Amino acid sequence: MRISDEQLALVNGRIKALIEADGFYGKKLKEKGISGVSSAEEFEALPFSEKSDLRDAYPLGLMTAPEEDIVRIHSSSGTTGLPVIIPYTAKDVDDWATMFTRCYETAGITNKDRIQITPGYGLWTAGIGFQAGAEKLGAMAIPMGPGNTEKQLQMMQDLGSTVICATSSYALLLAEEIQKRGIKDKIKLKKGVIGSERWGEKMRKRISEELGIELYDIYGLTEIYGPGIGVNCKYNSGMHYWDDFIYIEIIDPNTGKILPDGEIGEIVITTLVKEGAPLIRYRTHDLSRIIPGTCECGRSYPRLDVIMGRTDDMMKIKGVNVFPAQIEEILREFPALSSEYQIRISHVDGKDTMRIYVETTGDVDFIKLADEIAGAVKSKIGFTPIVKVVEVGVLPRSEKKTKRVIDERYE
Ligand code: ZN
Question: How many domains does the chain have?
Answer without folding.
Answer: 2
